[in-house]
Amino acid sequence: MQSDGSNGCGGAPGTRLISAIPRDSNILNALILDLNSGELTCRFIVIKCDS
């Protein structure tokens, strides 16, 4: 989780973005919240399971 580092919800300095970017974005979802616009950007991973 990346924010302003203050244990709050202010977003990154200059951009006001709060992001949750996984180390392995090929298997985990990513989220970015833009506090300036209120826009939430997400990247969801769909895993197909064969049985």
Order of helices and strands: EEE
> Structural class, from secondary structure content?
mainly beta
- What ranges have pLDDT less than 50 throughout 5 or more consecutive residues? none
Spatial strand order of the main sheet: 1-2-3
Question: Main beta sheet, described?
Answer: 3 strands, antiparallel
- Rg is 14 Å
> Can you tell me the number of structural domains?
1
Q: What is the strand content?
A: 25-35%
Total count of helical runs of at least 4 residues:
0
By DSSP, the count of extended strands is 3
What is the terminal separation in angstroms?
Answer: 34 Å
User: What is the mean pLDDT?
Assistant: 80
- Which shape, going by the Cα principal axes? elongated
The amount of helix comes to under 10%
Walk me through the structure.
By secondary structure, this protein is mostly beta strands. The protein has one domain (1-46). The protein has no helices and three strands. It has strands at residues 17-20, 30-34, 39-43. Strands 1-2-3 form a three-stranded antiparallel beta sheet, with no helix packed on it. The mean pLDDT is 80.
What's a quick, concise take on this entry?
The protein has strands at 17-20, 30-34, 39-43.
Topology:
Elements: E1 17-20, E2 30-34, E3 39-43
Antiparallel strand pairs: 1-2, 2-3
